[in-house]
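Justification of resources, computational component.

The compute hours requested in this renewal are based largely on the per-chain cost of generating structure records like the one below. Each record pairs the submitted sequence with a full structure-token output. That output is archived, and it is also reused by downstream analysis tasks.
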Amino acid sequence: MKSIKVYWLILLVIFLAGCSSPNNADPSEPFIQHTPETSVNGENSSQPYRIALVMKTLTNPFFIEMEKGGREAEAEFGIELVVKTAAQETSIEQQIEIVEELIREKIDAIVIAPGDSLELIPVLKKAQDAGIVVINIDNKLDPEFAEKVGLVDVPFISVNNEQAAYLSAKYISDQITSPTNVAVLEGIRSALNAEARKNGALRAFAENPNITVVAMESAHWKIDEAYEVTKEIFQDHADIGALFCANDMMALGAINYLKESKQNNVLVAAYDDLDEAEEAIRDGTLQVTIDQQAAYQGYLGVEYAVRTLNGEKIPAETLVEVLTVTTETLE
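The structure output for this chain reads:
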């Protein structure tokens, strides 16, 4: 009789032990009670989204502002922002390597301001095929080549570069009332935003019959290169009275040359609204620049990545409003 009682007692202990284990738990693993936490995706997870902001460089203050916007979104949406940049705006291969690295890291989303509109497309297609959300900001990826490669449904955030450059160039064009030669400093020619800005400036200049465009050269967005290119242009065309520069960095390089060569009567228009550009406007060496709200573009890029990861439908294209910055607006 005693042996029977012991037998039933053992069975009861085994039964109670079985009831204390979670359903479908692996018996080889210790049972740990987890407290559910809600992440940005609304699911029970303690892991926030990891979103990469890939920019051209941090040597241009424009992209420093873009990162600030991304950091603001990081704090607001509770994600982990990974910021990656190439050494220079012309370091396209390095940007490709960065995307390859992010694919290996299994990042959740890539928000990218591509240095080139064509060369980044194949690696971004590879990222998309790996399940990574891709958001395009600042410089537009070539839509025809993207479609050909199969990179689809990539939201684009930027400004109307053609119209913004038109406004910048028109500001100095309207001040020209006698026959005047002008020149254009372009960005990277394989970048769609550079092409759009050149076309916008040319449209503004074409509206003024007093203007003749005598030179168009690329300085690849760089301040030092712009100094040298401007020097060469003025050696060939000493009578240039106005200059459109497709970004502020090139404008600052051109202004450095104009100061050194004591050419104080050249009207200069620019694009980006860097702090240094505003200082140049105040001292009269620069007439106008364009604020394309870099921080807001960075913020929106991260926001769109989060919303896409959450299953929301995002607009195919979002154009941010630009602001013309002159002595009048800085007062």
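The chain has a mean pLDDT of 88. The two ends are 102 Å apart (CA to CA).
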